[in-house]
Amino acid sequence: MVLDSRQMDWGGRQGLDSAALKRAKVPIYGKWYFPDLPANEPLVNLSTGEIETFPPGYRAGAVLYVKEADLKKAGLGPYKATPAAAAAPAPVTAAPVAEPVAVAAAPVAAIAPRPAPAPAVVPAAHHEPPHESAAHQEARQQAAHSMGHAAPLRGDVVEHAHPGARTYITVALILAIITAVEVAVYYLPEVRPILPPILFVLSAVKFWMVVAFFMHLWFDHVSFSWFFGGGLALALTMAGSVVLMQIGTHGLPHGY
Amino acid sequence: MVSIAHDVESAHAPAHGGHDGLAPSVLDGPLSAPVGHHLPTSTGLDSRKLLMWLFLASDCMFFGSLIGTFMTYKGRSLIPPSPHEIFDIPYTSVSAFVLLMSSLTMVLALAAIQRNDPVRLRIWLIATALLGSVFIGGQYYEFHVFYQEQLTLQHSLFGSSFFTLTGFHGAHVTIGIFWLLYMTAMSWTGRLNSEQPLFIEIAGLYWHFVDIVWIIIFTAVYLLP
Fold first, then answer.
1. What is the ipTM of this complex?
2. Residue A135 confidence (pLDDT)
3. What is the model's pTM?
4. Is B106–A214 a contact, with Cβ atoms under 8 angstroms apart?
């Protein structure tokens, strides 16, 4: 599950998501996870795939990072498919500690190039470590500020990318067709004996489609499914128990 | 290539700074948390969205009890009219279709705010509210016809269970309509922008929930023989 598709563009393409990272016990650095960025350590930007390094005292915004070393250790993303590529980012790891911001040539990104160009890049003139100029600092802060802007609201957990309008319209068409079929079979005397199971199946499909696609439960964090599914299971149990108790006590109603 | 490579549009946005409830940080974007403070949650999930899902789970049980009650008494009412005498299936099918389509417009509103398209956001929100109003209007008309046919809340087991179930559902839809109109007004006054898709997503969750409840009601109450 991806915390936010816009913040894990590159990660998503690499098959990385927050669930996979958690399973592999790879700490995620971002404002919803560990907001304090580890200092002077190569971090992989899950949005762009670039390797970045930060001095002490920096905290993450909406963009998510993982330690490059953790990614390598877990054998995830580009380090899983291409073992040779795992060795490529070595120069970044060796970046001097005094370098306030890593200026790596994004070796991880090179494995899976980002399709869209970065919206803005701090000018290359900023490669003047060991000490940042005031202008450099300001530019970097501006760029860093924009990390939050590009992000959704705090904790705006949308998980994988939501489907697009075309998918929504397709789902709505299918729902409309199923509704029409429900009404049609209601009027068909031939299917009367098996009408209840047909209707249950059709309405269950409609229910699932709305929950999965319109409510995005299919794409969201699995916890939401558990919470909602728990309530639904309790509701079905309660309703079913009441009906069965009534039938057990008084038998089936007239005409059944 | 310098690593921090992101759009800089927000550099012109009003700065709020330090939204996390913690010390301001260089990486705290000016609009990263424009509505209040955020502390990282233990679940990693947004607590507001989690709360809405928990509410919907509890509402499942609420409607489960009402549907269970209706099903328990279905076919046991000795006083006419019976459901198959009074229900107008084609009419209710149109209502069900209208509510289904309102789910489509709702999700298109969410897509619009995610695309930073406030005009389409308002159009889809208003369309959703209108479709919801059509549904409620249809339900009002149906209730009116039933009352004319002597089917009232106090009339029979069928009347009591039917009006309680569909009435509570109608109340949920009505609340949803007001919620959507409030969201539209917020968007118009600039208090709802592309940074806040979660507000629309949560309202959408509620709206889709009333839709799935109607999917069950339409089958269990109207179509099931």
1. 0.79
2. 46
3. 0.61
4. yes
Answer yes or no: is pLDDT of A191 > 90: no
Cβ neighbours of B41 in A, within 8 Å: 32, 155
What is the domain-level CATH number for residue B215?
1.20.120.80
Residue B130 has pLDDT above 60, yes or no: yes
Report yes or no: A46 and A63 within 8 Å, Cβ to Cβ: yes
B140 shares its domain with B208: yes
Indicate the number of domains in chain B.
2
> Residue B47 to residues A223, A256, B38, B164: CA-CA distances in angstroms?
12, 47, 10, 32
**Is B4–A196 a contact, with Cβ atoms under 8 angstroms apart?**
no
B154/B152 Cα distance (integer angstroms): 5
HSE toward the beta carbon, residue A23, CA cutoff 13 A? 9
Is the same domain home to B25 and B133? no
Q: How confident is the model at residue B99 (pLDDT cuts 50, 70, 90)?
A: very high
Is the minimum CB–CB distance between A206 and chain B shorter than 8 Å?
yes
- pLDDT tens digits for range A78-113: 887 554 444 444 434 434 333 333 333 333 433 333
CA distance A156 to chain B (A): 6
Chain B closest-CA separation from residue A115 CA (Å): 14
Angstrom distance (rounded) from CA A229 to CA A237: 12
Phi and psi of B32, rounded to 5°?
-70, -25
Q: What is the mean pLDDT of chain B?
A: 81
Does residue B151 belong to any structural domain of this protein? yes
Decide if A183 touches B, using CB distance below 8 A: yes
Residues of chain B neighbouring A38 (CB-CB closer than 8 A): none
| DSSP 8-state secondary structure symbol assigned to residue A125 | G
Q: How long, in residues, is chain B?
A: 225
Evaluate if residue A17 carries a pLDDT over 60.
yes
Same domain, B87 and B23: no
Interface of A with B in 65-94 (CB under 8 A): none
The rounded mean pLDDT for chain A is 69
What percent of chain B clears pLDDT 90, i.e. is strictly above it? 59
Query: Is residue B188 one of the residues assigned to a domain?
Result: yes
Question: CA–CA separation, B173 vs B175, rounded Å?
Answer: 5
- Give A 215-234 residues with CB within 8 A of chain B: 215-216, 221, 223-224, 227-228, 230-232, 234
* Chain A partners within 8 Å of B43 (Cβ): 223
Q: Which residues in chain B have Cβ-Cβ distances shorter than 8 Å to A171?
A: 104
pLDDT winner (highest mean) among A79-93, A133-147, B38-52? B38-52
